[in-house]
């Protein structure tokens, strides 16, 4: 019996930036017009919350 797919995991993932995932870092760098290093530094200093990372990159 197949389980219905939930969106819980996906919604939680959208709220976070995985600094160790190249595709996530590339996406955020392109979105915020920042370097990959800037994104990784923001994740290290602010945590993996997408809102906090984006706020840091806007500074």
Automatic annotation (TrEMBL):
Superkingdom, natural source: Bacteria
Pfam families with a match to the protein in the record: DUF3606
Matches recorded under InterPro entries: DUF3606
Basic and acidic residues bias spans: 10-44
Region (Disordered): 1-59
Protein name: DUF3606 domain-containing protein
Species of origin: Devosia chinhatensis
Lineage: Bacteria, Pseudomonadati, Pseudomonadota, Alphaproteobacteria, Hyphomicrobiales
